[in-house]
Amino acid sequence: MKVTLRIKRFDPDKDAKPYWAEYTVEASPVDRLLDALNTIKWTIDGTLTFRRSCAHGVCGSDAMRINGRNRLACKVLIRDVGEKVTVEPMLGFPVIKDLVVDMDPFFRKYESVKPYLITYDNEPGTERLQSPEERARYDEGTKCILCGACTGSCPSIWGNPDWVGPAAIVNAHRFIFDSRDQGTAERLAILGQRNGVWRCRTIFNCSDACPRGIPVTDLIEQVKRAIVYGDRNID
């Protein structure tokens, strides 16, 4: 089948503003959108720029706006988007070139919530053990691949680029609710600030955009309740 991709392009070295370019390629219904993008780059226009790596939905590098929704190009099948596809860079991020966005601000926000195990006790003689129930408490947050799809789908980020964003909160949740961690108060203090968790308007775009099926909005709400009640055991 013939598929036409309408791609939003921008090269800051030569373009005054973004523009739309159309490319028509042959593709199978079970091809991925990433396959079509590769065909364009390899056989039609080598200047088209986008990120890609594992092509298996694990690295998260090829997140982009596909028919108005943030998705991973390597997970979207041609049959699910049709014969005419619109592809854009994710909103809420500075565009470096074409479909490549600047992820540095995103990762600075991620780092700001201290996404690592914090302990103040002496090193134990054995592993820090957990029950299956304790491990399950934060399991959803461990699935995040930092693709930015949730953050780029959030109207709060579009209106306020300084907001920490859903991905950072999800990764904070992963440690806030870890029974082995002793940095909960520090993270809740960070997320309780002006550009912290309260900027979330519970729109659910983030949950829809997540390629790993993480219930992002629910995890954000759990963090809000932990701040209000001062208890990470609150569900």
TrEMBL record:
Cofactor(s) required for function per UniProt: [4Fe-4S] cluster; [2Fe-2S] cluster; [3Fe-4S] cluster
Pathways per UniProt: Carbohydrate metabolism; tricarboxylic acid cycle
Catalytic activity: a quinone + succinate = fumarate + a quinol
EC number(s) per entry: 1.3.5.1
Pfam family, one: Fer2_3
Keywords: 2Fe-2S, 3Fe-4S, 4Fe-4S, Iron, Iron-sulfur, Metal-binding, Oxidoreductase, Tricarboxylic acid cycle
Family that this chain belongs to: Belongs to the succinate dehydrogenase/fumarate reductase iron-sulfur protein family.
The protein's name in its UniProt record: Succinate dehydrogenase iron-sulfur subunit
